[in-house]
């Protein structure tokens, strides 16, 4: 214990903590505001009916698949950007940004097409309730625009973070949140547009977010954008090297996202109340997991910068401090969620039985927050940054598809368990994944310079 206390109060740790806070605090605030944008959709629509909140929640599963796919693209890009920034090579960042924009916008068009032309097909996979499907179709009719805007804003956000400019995304998200709240209130309640009003609120929020990002990039003359030819100044060998590292990340996120989608397919067998309660509790839990995840994102920036500068020892040392700090913050947030769960559930205009399900779901979430957050650290913030992307792909894919999904269907379809028991079964895969990821992390083979 004395050694641990000395370590906490050492000059080295204090210096590390100052850097981490400098990077993480804006990310925490930015992610909080970004998730609040989504949270407000569910909460405001949740004042209308259970069908409305379930419809919008299931519709957002298409966006979830999309955002995790471009998260994979941008996470792979950030590996290179972070290391290029570590060696102060902007030409490399410009090339990676050109590739990222091209791939992200292409993906956005594909998902927008599904939202606009095949919404009923998509929603019918998740539910057979015609009222829920109808609400979801109304939301997706507008949501196609959101995908295109998000592909632009998210790519800029990841680039800014990679060069340690975390305050601009924070301010952009703050402006987007204000617009979102105003438009949502006017469109949902004053103009009585329901879920469609929520969708338009997100459209306007994304537009404002992009405008603010570009404004500050120009104002501070940040070296992100350059002559368009320089953004596309890459040849086939460069593209091959880029995708050698990033394809496992992209595949990792998308296959994992499909697994989460399959969880939703399983959850429908818990009944309408169980499915609706999950949409509410799932939306809430993200808010409480944000500090841990944001510290993980900041840690990834620090570790990538160290590796790019050839400082593998510093990268390993930082990773240990990051995991410990993130776990401690997650414990605090878990305790807060445990005590806040009943109050949060009571704020939704749903039946008492659904409120009880939401509160119980959130209690289950608190029990598994530590392994879930630390797994994010190991996979996204540490192993990937040194190029250990294939291992991450195999681990994430196997744990979800071979453990989580079978347990979800066993609990919901075969045994007919309540939603909270099914959630507990699903989270078993996070515990197993934790021990495997920890064993890989301890070997330090991930600390590689890639550029």
H/I helix tally: 17
List the domain count as a whole number.
1
Task: Note the run of SSEs as H and E.
Answer: HHHHHHHHHHHHHHHHH
- Radius of gyration equals 21 Å
**Largest sheet at a glance?**
none
- Helicity, in percent? over 70%
Query: Pairing-aware structural class of the strands and helices?
Result: mainly alpha
Approximately how much beta-strand content do the residues carry?
under 5%
The end-to-end span amounts to 40 Å
- The average pLDDT value, as a whole number, equals 84
Shape label: globular
Q: Quick one: how many beta strands?
A: 0
- Poorly predicted sequence stretches spanning 5 or more consecutive residues: none
Describe the protein's architecture and organization.
The protein is an all-alpha fold. The protein has one domain. Helices cover 85% and strands 0% of the residues. The protein contains 17 helices and no strands. Helix 2 runs parallel beside helix 7 (167-190). The radius of gyration is 21 Å and the shape is globular. The two termini are 40 Å apart. The mean pLDDT is 84.
């Amino acid at each position: 214990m004395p050694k641990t206390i000395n370590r906490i109060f050492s000059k080295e740790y204090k210096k590390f903590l100052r850097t981490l806070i400098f990077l993480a605090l804006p990310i925490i605030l930015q992610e909080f505001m970004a998730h609040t944008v989504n949270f407000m959709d569910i909460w405001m629509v949740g004042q209308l009916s259970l069908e409305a909140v379930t419809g919008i929640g299931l519709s957002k599963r298409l966006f979830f698949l999309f955002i995790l796919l471009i998260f994979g693209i941008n996470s792979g890009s950030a590996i290179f950007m972070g290391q290029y920034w570590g060696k102060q090579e902007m030409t490399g960042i410009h090339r990676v940004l050109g590739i990222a924009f091209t791939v992200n916008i292409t993906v956005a068009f594909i998902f927008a097409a599904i939202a606009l032309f095949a919404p009923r097909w998509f929603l019918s996979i998740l539910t057979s309730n015609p009222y829920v499907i109808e609400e979801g179709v109304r939301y997706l009719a507008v949501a196609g625009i959101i995908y295109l805007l998000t592909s632009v804003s998210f790519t800029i956000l990841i680039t800014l973070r990679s060069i340690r400019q975390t305050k601009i995304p924070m301010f952009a998200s703050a402006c987007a949140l204000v617009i979102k709240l105003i438009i949502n209130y006017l469109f949902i309640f004053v103009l009585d547009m329901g879920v469609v009003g929520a969708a338009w609120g997100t459209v306007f929020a994304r537009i404002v977010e992009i405008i603010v990002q570009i404004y500050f990039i120009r104002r501070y003359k940040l070296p992100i954008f350059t002559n368009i030819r320089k953004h596309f100044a890459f040849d086939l060998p460069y593209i091959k090297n880029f995708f050698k590292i990033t394809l496992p990340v992209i595949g990792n996120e998308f296959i994992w996202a499909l697994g989460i989608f399959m969880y939703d397919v399983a959850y429908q067998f818990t009944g309408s109340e169980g499915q609706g309660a999950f949409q509410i509790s799932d939306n809430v839990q993200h808010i409480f997991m944000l500090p841990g995840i944001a510290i993980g994102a900041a840690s990834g920036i620090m570790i990538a910068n160290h590796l790019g500068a050839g400082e593998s020892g510093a990268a390993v040392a930082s990773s240990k401090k990051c995991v410990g700090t993130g776990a401690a913050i997650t414990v605090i947030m878990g305790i807060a969620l445990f005590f806040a769960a009943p109050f949060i559930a009571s704020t939704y205009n749903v039946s008492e039985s659904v409120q009880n399900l939401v509160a119980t779901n959130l209690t289950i979430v608190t029990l598994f927050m530590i392994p879930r957050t630390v797994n994010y650290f190991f996979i996204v913030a540490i192993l990937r940054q040194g190029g250990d992307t294939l291992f991450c792909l195999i681990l994430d894919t196997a744990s979800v598809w071979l453990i989580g999904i079978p347990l979800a269907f066993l609990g919901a379809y075969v045994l007919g368990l309540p939603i909270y028991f099914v959630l507990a079964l699903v989270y078993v895969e996070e515990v197993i994944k934790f021990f495997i990821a920890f064993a890989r992390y301890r070997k330090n083979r991930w600390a590689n310079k890639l550029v």
